[in-house]
Design brief:
Layout lengths: L3 H5 L6 H11 L4 E4 L4 E3 H17 L7 E5 L4 H12 L3 E4 L6 H11 L3 E4 L1 H7 L7 E4 L17 E2 H4 L17 E6 L9 E5 H9 L10 E4 L6 H13 L2 E4 L5 H11 L3 E3 L2 H8 L14 E4 L6 H10 L3 E6 L8 E4 L12 E2 L4 E5 L12 E6 L6 E2 L3 H6 L1 E3 L5 E11 L5 E6 L4 E3 L2 E3 L1 H8 L5 E11 L3 E10 L6 H11 L8 E4 L13 H10 L1
Parallel strand pairs: 1-11, 3-4, 3-5, 5-6, 6-7, 10-11, 10-12, 12-13, 13-14, 26-27
Antiparallel strand pairs: 1-2, 8-9, 9-19, 14-15, 15-16, 17-18, 18-21, 20-21, 21-22, 23-24, 25-26
Helix pairs in contact: 2-3, 2-9, 3-4, 8-9, 10-11
Length: about 525
Amino acid sequence: MTTAADMLATGFATLPDLIRAHGRERGNSLALADSRHAIDYATLDRLMDRVASALRRDGVAKGMAVAIVAAPSVEYMAVFLGAVRAGCVATPIAPSATPEAIGAMIADSGAPIVFVDAEQADMLRPMHVPARAILLPPPGPTDADPQAPAGPQRFEAWLAAEDAVAPDVSIVPEDAFNIIYSSGTTGTPKGIVQSHAMRWAHIARNAAAGFDTAVTMIATPLYSNTTLVSVLPTLGWGGTVVLMGKFDARTYLVLAERHRATHTMLVPVQYQRIMALPDFADFDLSAFRFKTSTSAPFPAALKADVVARWPGLLVEFYGMTEGGASCALNASANPTKLHTVGQPMPGHEIRLIDDNGNEVAPGETGEVVGRSPAMMNGYHGRHEATREAEWYDATGNRYIRHGDVGRFDADGFLTLLDRKKDLVISGGFNVYPSDLEAVLARHPDVADCAVVGMPSEAWGETPVAIIVPRTRDADAAAILAWTNAQLGKTQRLAGIHAVAELPRSAIGKVLKRELRDRLLGA
């Protein structure tokens, strides 16, 4: 009988097969925990079989999408993994999206079945979503009567019998594993189809990360690729995943101390909020071995603070849900490179190109394109959008456009300057908002900031700052004058607007399009 170690040593294995092996070999080891309960690998393996069998019973065949719109929970992950075991395509969808957007994403995926929690069931009921709904139990304690009628069939009643056998499905590396919908603030986000091969690459590349004995704290949503690139390797190697639910900095530290967490993935704004707690040092975080971050710009000063005060290695990853290539920065080992996102990972290749698709000379700035073993199949049902996201070199190798502008230094470390779409062209000069934001962030009265390009009759576009002041009496005019004194003539800000909080996505990205829309409507 093939062991998990044998599978992990091969060129390809599926995550459901790895979990099956963990169920045999370390069945009593904790696999998943949320605020309500926890299950071991043997229980998870059986629950995945019951989900897979029930899907096949209901006519959900290999290659069909299985949508999930719910808060993180043990059952959520069991459905996700059970769907993959059945050869279906797990399709997690953001509960924070509007009901119209959720309905559109479910319809776009073609999912015949959707797993929801009580909140989403109430929200989607009037939308007439074209999929059968199954009600998942709440992730935390509840006073609700479990026998009360609730519209959708309850998960426990829907599951196949305890002794159900999963369908025998042949899976090849190119088969779709999941669809991740890109974070859009308007319209229907694009569905990014990721293969079993891509997910295997995420698991296999973490051989040295110690996930086999990990207790991984998860405080970001399960519909985000940011989260899954920590969850899936942990389960693939046989570690424990602790699902937090809605993020709160102090609650996170309480749970991390209680569970003796060893690994975590947090976005920069979460690190910022945790490190700002006055009693941070009172929590015992000595079990931590491996902390990661991705998805949004990570200020160098914040990286240095995490390295100095939080035990364990800090590694920043740069990449994208579509795949392409990834960079890694070992912040603990490279104190002089904290302004970068590191170097391309082994087996990953990044090139920089100009607006005409030609490679730029060494040391010059260009658009990031990348290729690796971890690349999307394409956008679901959107062949033209897929083609637009691709770039091919002279020998026909396929790369994915990252949408970022960057520059390599002499040591091969990549510095990101900005999203290409956020570049401000003022009077014919390229202005990178990140440069201006870095200066603004140094002002003692600025707690948070963003810079966007706004229409200008004189210059075409002009940079404007939006700040979160540290105090109510902060002088915006004085901050503007101080900042412009630090900037070049072509970079200077046209104005500053103060807000109570910057709009961010669930994984910490500043929603600059929303900021622009606010200013245009002001």
